[in-house]
Specification:
Blueprint lengths: L1 H25 L15 E6 L5 E4 L2 H12 L4 E5 L8 E6 L5 E9 L2 E4 L2 E4 L6 H12 L1
Antiparallel strand pairs: 1-2, 1-4, 3-7, 4-5, 5-6, 6-7
Length: 138
């Protein structure tokens, strides 16, 4: 009787862990959660397609980017390990140069933050970042 109870308990623990893992995996993720646009002093952007890097320090541009990213719930898609190449690698800086968050915006519907790609229905500021690159680099 003791072995049966141990096996049942072990199975119950495994099932609970699998359910918790599924809830975590399928729950939406919000990037820059808890970060106010006013807390961001600069955004460092590097375009992996062109090799151009630029810094955004205009408060209105920072606010537009932060609000866009925060308002887009993302879902985990696939594992990003062993993938190379990227579009816009972004580092968000606060006071004293402290990094608040960093990730890669790959397209209008994909963010890469290792170890996952995160997808949405579109609407990320990918095109806006391209416009800012043209403005800052040229």
């Amino acid at each position: 009787m003791g072995k049966r109870n141990i096996i049942r308990s072990l199975i119950a623990v495994i099932v609970i862990l699998l359910v918790l893992l599924a809830v975590w995996y399928f729950s939406p993720r919000t990037f820059l959660k808890g970060v106010e646009a006013g807390d961001v002093t600069a955004i460092s952007v590097f375009d992996g397609n062109t090799g151009n890097g630029f810094d955004i320090d205009d408060p209105e541009e920072i606010q537009a980017i932060v609000e866009n990213i925060q308002s887009t719930p993302m879902k985990r898609d696939k594992i990003s390990v062993n993938y190379s190449g990227f579009s816009f690698r972004m580092n968000f800086y606060g006071e004293n140069g402290r990094v608040l968050d960093s990730f890669v915006v790959n397209s209008t519907d994909t963010i890469r933050s290792d170890p996952f790609f995160y997808c949405c229905d579109g609407g990320l500021c990918y095109d806006y970042l391209g416009e800012l690159e043209a403005q800052y680099v040229n």
